[in-house]
Amino acid sequence: MRHLEDSPVEHSGELKMDRIYSLFLTFSILLSGAQSLHADVVLDNMDSLTNILFSVDGIHDVTRAQGFRLDDDTDFSSVTIVGRTTHSNQDFRVQLYSSSAGNPGSVLATLQGETSPQSWVEETYVAPSPVFLTANTEYFFVFSSIGLQSNYDVFGVTNTSEIGNGEINNYSHSMLGSNPNWGTINSVIGLRIRGTSVPEPASGIVVAALGTTTLLRRRRRA
């Protein structure tokens, strides 16, 4: 009995389809990777910087915090502020906190950056690794001095409007000394927040491409 064989034209067509799907899958993965590597400014109120609102004496261990929310799931990477210390003791600290009952809760990351800013210039504080922030969830940047002889100032804003996808609270928090209770004050700290929105559409493209390639292979085997 003579066996029927696939024609060269059919093989050629299948190879072309394989190449198309392979290229599509590669492009989708590269697109997803490019989005995850590029950090953008996602929320910013620094354009309205006007005057020093905070001059905090570190002897009294005063801690300040500024809350915010983002509209999208985001891998946080850094925040830029303007501040200074009155001593070169390298003890100024910026941390990212979760929220608990509307106040700073637990430390999510201690950010890396200048620990003795001496002049009124922008300083950027970077997370050691990306921190995933859930959309529409409150988080805080917490500012403190861990030394006993250091004062620090953080630049504030009088205009509470911001640019980007989210909201910076139109008030800030303060905690004095060993008192564990946070209070609120009618002042806003200037922030420029950078991060990468989690690319759900791109992830969907990759999944779709993988599924299409799998179906193609199954059809060929059948």
Description:
The protein is an alpha+beta fold. Helices cover 23% and strands 44% of the residues. It contains two helices and 15 strands. The strands form two sheets. Strands 1, 2, 4, 7, 9, 10, 14 and 15 form an eight-stranded antiparallel β-sheet that branches. Strand 12 and strand 13 form a beta hairpin. Helix 1 packs antiparallel against helix 2 (200-221). The two termini are 22 Å apart. The model is unreliable at 24-37 and 202-209 (pLDDT under 50).
Overall number of strands: 15
The helicity comes to: 10-25%
**Spatial shape:** globular
Low-confidence stretches: 24-37, 202-209
C-alpha Rg (nearest Å): 26 Å
Q: What structural keywords apply?
A:
222 residues; alpha+beta; globular
Give me the secondary-structure topology.
Elements: H1 8-37, E1 40-44, E2 49-57, E3 63-70, E4 74-85, E5 92-100, E6 103-110, E7 121-133, E8 139-145, E9 151-157, E10 163-164, E11 166-168, E12 172-175, E13 183-185, E14 188-189, E15 192-197, H2 200-221
Antiparallel strand pairs: 1-10, 1-15, 2-9, 3-8, 3-11, 3-12, 4-7, 4-9, 4-15, 5-6, 5-8, 9-14, 12-13
Helix pairs in contact: 1-2
Short description, anyone?
This protein is α+β, with helices and mostly antiparallel strands and 222 residues long. It contains two helices and 15 strands.
